[in-house]
Write a structure and sequence with these properties.
Layout lengths: L4 E5 L5 E5 L15 E6 L12 E3 H15 L2 E2 L12 E6 H10 L20 E8 L10 E2 L4 E6 L10 E7 L1
Antiparallel strand pairs: 1-2, 3-4, 5-10, 6-9, 7-10, 8-9
Length: 170
C-alpha cells in the first residue's frame, strides 16, 4: 500500500491496483459529535433539575473543573512533630512523605511495594491549622522544598495537639 493506493497480487502473477482515496479522512468526528449511549449527569449529582451530558465534549467540560481541583490536594501521612520543649525547630515534610509513601508498612495483595509520589518541585506545602496554644503560628514558614520551620511556645497540656498539613500538586 502506498498513500491511498492498494496493490493486490493475483495468483497468475498479475496485480490489481485499487484506489482507497474515497476512504481517506472519513473519520472526522469531533468530541462534540460522539454521542453517549446513555446521557449522564456528571457535575450536578442530585440537584433538583440536573443537566445530563449527552456527548463526549460535554462530559469533558463538566468533569474538568471537578478533577482539576480535587485530585490536586492531598494530606501527607501523619508524622510526629517535636513539641517536647520550647524553641524553634524544623521538620522536612517532603522527606517524611517520601519515607512513608516509598515504604508503606503493608499493602493489599498484588499491590506495588511503594505508592506513586511527586518530586519536591511538583508540590506546594501548607499548614492549614496549628494549635495556637502550642505553636507560634505567626512565625511558621515552609520553604519551597517542603521544610517546615516552627516555634513551640508551650507544651500541650494533655499530650495531644494538632497541626494539619496539606500538599497541593502544582
Amino acid at each position: 500500500m502506498s498513500g491511498t493506493t492498494l496493490t493486490v497480487g493475483i495468483e497468475d502473477g498479475s496485480s490489481q491496483t485499487v484506489s482507497l482515496a474515497s476512504l481517506a479522512n472519513t473519520d472526522d468526528q469531533f468530541d462534540d459529535e460522539v454521542e453517549l449511549r446513555t446521557p449522564i449527569d456528571v457535575d450536578e449529582g442530585g440537584e433538583s433539575s440536573p443537566t445530563a451530558e449527552t456527548n463526549v465534549q460535554e462530559v469533558i467540560q463538566a468533569i474538568a473543573p471537578i478533577t482539576s481541583k480535587a485530585a490536586r490536594i492531598f494530606y501527607p501521612p501523619s508524622i510526629e512533630v517535636d513539641v517536647a520543649t520550647n524553641g524553634t525547630k524544623t521538620v522536612d515534610l517532603y522527606d517524611e512523605y517520601i519515607k512513608q509513601y516509598g515504604t508503606p508498612t503493608v499493602g493489599s495483595a498484588g499491590a506495588p511495594s511503594a505508592l506513586p509520589t511527586y518530586t519536591r518541585a511538583e508540590l506546594y506545602y501548607y499548614v492549614t491549622y496549628a494549635d495556637p496554644t502550642v505553636f507560634n503560628t505567626g512565625s511558621m514558614t515552609i520553604n519551597a522544598n517542603g521544610v517546615l520551620t516552627y516555634t513551640v511556645t508551650n507544651q500541650p497540656t494533655d499530650y495531644n495537639t494538632l497541626i494539619n498539613v496539606v500538599f497541593v500538586v502544582k
